[in-house]
Design brief:
The protein is mainly alpha-helical. The protein has one domain: Orthogonal Bundle (Globin-like). The protein is built from seven helices and no strands. The chain is globular.
Length: 141
């Protein structure tokens, strides 16, 4: 189902094609390429894993058995927020080329939600509470 007008849904072949084409772009990208190329040592396995991930997300297959937060946390020192924006821009562009309009929109929206979750996991820190300024400490005083 690669860019056929009026084709319903997303299938495994389309997801595999999308992932392959997208990561070709990521590897060549000035901003993302250096990190991905230094980090991924077995590209065929990585592409297969990410196809399983998107199959689980979009088709509900349950084929992915990993933890994206843990995988990204291992590289947190090398990842910044702008990288997520670049990743999403490439993902949207590639999805629009490979999938029909509705499918590209659906997978882009999922990617945006996943990116927000990953950004929160990587960059959001709840400040340590100060017991001297908590509401209960003044009531007990």
């Amino acid at each position: 189902m690669i860019r056929e007008a009026g084709s319903p849904g997303i299938d495994e072949a389309a997801l595999s094609h999308l992932v392959d084409r997208f990561y070709d772009r990521v590897r060549a990208d000035e901003q993302l390429g250096p990190l991905f190329n230094a980090t991924i040592h077995d590209w065929p396995e990585h592409l297969a894993k990410l196809t399983r991930f998107w199959s689980s997300v979009m088709l509900g297959t349950g084929r992915y058995k990993g933890n994206p937060v843990v995988a990204h946390r291992a590289h947190a020192g090398a990842i910044d927020v702008q990288m997520f924006d670049r990743w999403l821009a490439l993902w949207r562009a590639t999805a629009s080329e490979v999938l029909g309009r509705a499918e590209a929109t659906a997978i882009a929206l999922k990617a945006e939600r996943i990116a927000e979750s990953l950004k929160l996991a990587l960059f959001f820190k709840i400040p340590a509470s100060d017991p001297t300024t908590s509401p209960t400490s003044s009531a007990n005083a």
